[in-house]
Amino acid sequence: MQEIQIERTKNPKQKPTDQSKLGFGKIFTDHMYIMPYNKEQGWHDPKIVPYQPITLEPSAMVFHYGQEMFEGLKAYKAADGRVLLFRPDKNIARANRSNDRLCIPEIPEDDFLNALKTLVSVDKDWIPTQPGTSLYIRPFVIATDPFLGVRPSDTYLFIIILSPSGAYYESGLDPVKIWIEDDYVRAVRGGIGEAKTGGNYVASLAAQMKAHDEGYSQVLWLDGVERKYIEEVGAMNIFFKINGKVVTPKLNGSILPGVTRASCIDLCKHWGMEVEERRISVDELVEAARTGALEECWGSGTAAVISPVGTLRYENEVMEIGGGGIGPVSQKLYDTVTGIQTGKVNDEFGWTVEVQ
Ligand SMILES: *Cc1c(COP(=O)(O)O)cnc(C)c1O
User: Fold this and answer.
1) How confident is the model at residue 171 (pLDDT cuts 50, 70, 90)?
2) Residue 186 CB–ligand 1 contact under 6 Å
3) Region (Disordered): which ranges (predicted)?
């Protein structure tokens, strides 16, 4: 494992005083991690330096052909003062699967974990403490060759930045309204849907704007070929409870394999519930909503952890689920996952990693 050189800031910034106004992704801590890659040295000379702008040539490949990978995870401060990461090994493994798909060289797992732990430790006084708050961690890689030809870059930067973030739900869990998109698509099998990369997000913006205009907060995507099978929400995976069974779309190559998704599946099985990972058609969903078999629906992702869905709309069908309220499985998953993340609930799965 490579040693990280640390240069601490001489001008620490003012930390936010009102944790209820943090929001998401607007404030950055005092430091960042940066490690370059080139063909001769591989990933080398990792550093933690004061948070600062980076200089790139306008011809840097990332600006033109989108060769970039990103991740998202959180650090939490437990009541006893311990600093905890949630399943960082899963994010690291996924980052390298994204890297493979995007022709970016893999990052050694031990260097990646050491980077996360060391950076969070250096800026641990930035971790907010109020319920629901956390320190959001954004690792990413960009292609930096100054070149306009189309090929994988020979040079990269791996950077990690940190952002204290507020409670996703200011006043407890709040059911969201979701728009099932039948025109635009996000990803197709064989494409880059299962990689965490900016290209998937830019592809989703037009539908997101359309959904917002209609009064819906997020888009639920259908498969890119037949526009018939449920895939996932913008930045969340999706779960349904139909006739007592927990059902979620099977990972098929165009769905992002969420860490929160995997944790929901593990917990539901642990609680003795039947969990099915399979194809779910939108017709099955509409039918289940009409007959009352659709008992619950929720999204899962690092940002909100669990997001209960109160309303789904597909074409002219508006489906209200569980009276538009929060279902018991959603609530139990939210309480358990956030409880483990913050050290309040016994971590019997060994999911948390302590930062010293
Ligand atoms: C990150 C992401 C998710 C959720 O993954 P988590 O690991 O649970 O945060 C779901 N869908 C997309 C498209 C994503 O980018």
Assistant:
1) low
2) no
3) 1-21
- Mean pLDDT confidence for 325-350: 96
How far does residue 10's CA lie from ligand 1's centre (Å)? 36
Does 156 score more than 80 pLDDT?
yes
CB 12 near ligand 1, within 6 Å: no
Q: Model confidence over 3-20: pLDDT tens digits?
A: 999 999 999 999 999 998
Instruction: Please give the model's pTM, rounded to 2 decimal places.
Output: 0.97
pLDDT at position 164 over 80: yes
- Asked whether 254 lines ligand 1 (CB < 6 A), one says no
257 lines ligand 1 (CB under 6 A): no
* Distance from residue 63's CA to the centre of ligand 1 (Å): 23
Q: Is the beta carbon of 261 within 6 A of some atom in ligand 1?
A: yes
HEC letters along the chain: CCCCEECCCCCCCCCCCCHHHCCCCCCCCCEEEEEEEECCCEECCCEEEECCCCCCCCCECHHHHCCEEECCEEEEECCCCCEEEECHHHHHHHHHHHHHHCCCCCCCHHHHHHHHHHHHHHCHHHCCCCCCCEEEEEEEEEECCECCCCCCCCCEEEEEEEEEECCCCCCCCCCEEEEECCCCCCCCCCCCCCCCCHHHHHCCHHHHHHHHHCCCCEEEEECCCCCCEEEEECCEEEEEEECCEEEEECCCCCCCCCHHHHHHHHHHHHCCCCEEEECCEHHHHHHHHHHCCEEEEEEEECCCEEEEEEEEEECCEEEECHHHCCCHHHHHHHHHHHHHHCCCCCCCCCCEEEEC
| Across 208-236, average pLDDT | 95
Atom of ligand 1 nearest to the CA of 71: 1
Whether ligand 1 lies within 6 angstroms of the CB of 193 is answered as no
Mean pLDDT of 136-153: 98
- CA 248 / ligand 1 centre spacing (Å): 14
**264 Cβ below 6 A of ligand 1:** no
